[in-house]
Design brief:
GO terms for molecular function: oxidoreductase activity. Keywords: Oxidoreductase. InterPro entries: AKR_Detox_Biosynth (IPR050523), NAD(P)_OxRdtase_dom_sf (IPR036812), NADP_OxRdtase_dom (IPR023210). Pfam families: Aldo_ket_red (PF00248). It is a single chain. By secondary structure, the chain is α/β, with parallel strands linked by helices. The protein has a single domain (about 5-315), classed as NADP-dependent oxidoreductase domain (TIM Barrel, Alpha-Beta Barrel), CATH 3.20.20. About 45% of the residues lie in helices and about 10% in strands. It contains 13 helices and ten strands. The strands form two sheets. It has an eight-stranded parallel beta sheet, covered by helices on one side. It has a two-stranded antiparallel ribbon with strand order 1-2. Helix 10 packs antiparallel against helix 13 and helix 11 (about 265-275) packs parallel to helix 12. The radius of gyration is 19 Å and the shape is globular.
């Protein structure tokens, strides 16, 4: 499968990145191993996780996804085949959050232990920390890069102002620079990224790896009414999509999917991959059917008419 460099790094990724929030949450250990095997066998290579996954779920405290991945790497002995991203910053418990140097140095050791590896390809600030000077955060990353524990750094959930400040601080203080932005962006959720961050990323040559690329499953078409999501793991994430615009988006996805003989999920991802500023969307699957939609998306090229139809239907 064709791979591309992430921004100005020497990291290479296939067109899609697997989102590891499902590992240890909606997929158990064996199911996770099977999904990871299928992902690599299909020609993909990149996996995204975070220390906090899946702390939001009942009975879980964070670290579950990294732990499953670590056990997978140990069992399969294939860590070198994976472009691995993890993140730091969101609360993991009392006094365990933020982007201070002391906490980052502590948190990376915890992640490396859970992941059973001695390096992280891409380490992301999971969210802004306005209580810590950005220079302190970047200095922590400088130390980790010097030690070989981290190769490159990036940011997720950053505002335009915070991202600009971080890029300027890196240049002025000769510190490592964020090379990747991981924003909330998909066919439905367009406005914030397109109006506030897209131009900045393009100008600064940042790689863009959107998360919630299928709007927590809404863009697959499996949730047509609020009742369809009741009792589902992602119910809380999709409740705001049942709008007139949401229904227009699903109708357009259905029409294009029928024309190309693929699923709405494949079409939604193909639209996202076609956006010039996007490097590789982050996606997840819990079943073989969902997995096939991801593989189909990676090989799907929409024509200008289809892209225009989807863009118009999702206009904000």
């Amino acid at each position: 499968m064709q791979k591309q460099y992430l921004g100005q790094t020497d990291l290479q990724t296939a067109p899609l990145i697997f989102g590891g929030n499902v590992f240890g949450w909606t997929l158990n250990k064996q199911q996770s191993f099977d999904m990871l095997d299928a992902w690599l066998d299909a020609g993909f290579n990149a996996i995204d996780t975070a220390d906090v996954y899946a702390r939001w779920a009942d009975g879980l405290g964070g670290g579950e996804s990294e732990t499953v991945l670590g056990e997978y790497f140990k069992t399969r002995r294939n860590r070198d085949q994976v472009m691995l991203t993890t993140k730091v910053g969101i609360e993991m418990g009392a006094h365990r959050k933020g982007l201070s140097k002391a906490y980052i140095i502590q948190a990376v050791e915890d992640s490396l232990r859970r992941l059973q590896t001695d390096y992280i390809d891409l380490y992301l600030s999971h969210t802004e920390d306005t209580q810590t000077p950005i220079e302190e955060t970047l200095d922590a990353y400088h130390q980790l890069i010097e030690q070989g524990k981290v190769r490159y750094i990036g940011a997720s959930n950053y505002s335009p102002e915070g991202l600009t400040q971080a890029l300027q601080a890196a240049e002025q203080s000769h510190l490592p620079r964020y090379q990747v932005l991981q924003p909330f962006y998909n066919l439905y959720d367009r406005e914030d990224f397109e109006t506030q961050l897209a131009e900045l990323c393009q100008r600064e040559r940042l790689a863009v790896t959107p998360y919630f690329s299928l709007a927590s499953g809404f863009l697959t078409g499996k949730y047509r009414r609020r009742e369809d999501a009741q009792g589902q793991a992602r119910e809380q994430f999709v409740e705001n999509y049942f709008t007139d615009r949401g229904m227009r988006v699903l109708e357009a996805l259905d029409q294009v999917a029928q024309a190309y003989q693929v699923t709405p999920a494949s079409v939604a991802l193909a639209w996202l991959m076609a956006q010039p500023v996007v490097s590789a969307p982050i996606v997840s699957a819990r079943s073989s059917e969902q997995f096939k939609a991801l593989v189909d998306a990676a090989h799907l090229t929409l024509d200008e008419s289809a892209l225009a139809q989807l863009t118009e239907a999702s206009t904000y």
